[in-house]
Design brief:
The structure is a single chain. It contains 1 helix and 3 strands. It is mostly beta strands. It has a domain at 19-33 and 45-79. Strands 1-2-3 form a 3-stranded antiparallel sheet, with no helix packed on it. A hairpin with a 4-residue loop joins strand 2 and strand 3 (68-76). The mean pLDDT is 81.
Amino acid sequence: MEDILDVYHLPYDPNYPVVCMDESCKQMIGKIRNPMPCKPGQPVRIDDEYVRNGVAEIFVEVEPLAGKRHVSISERRTRKIGHGKSK
């Protein structure tokens, strides 16, 4: 791990860029009901039921020594079961 961290302390050289990449998927969820208003002395009541709105794929490319970054997010909706043509 220390060897990798040492790379970030090297002087910037445009002929040998240090590029880091990462990707992640995040579930997009939505509310079914609005929170119930609270009464004096009680916290707001929030329903834990939600609707699934697909997945977002997140791609990040960073060149830290040059101060550059690129972020790409693509949305992928969930497939609806029972719709469309079968193969």
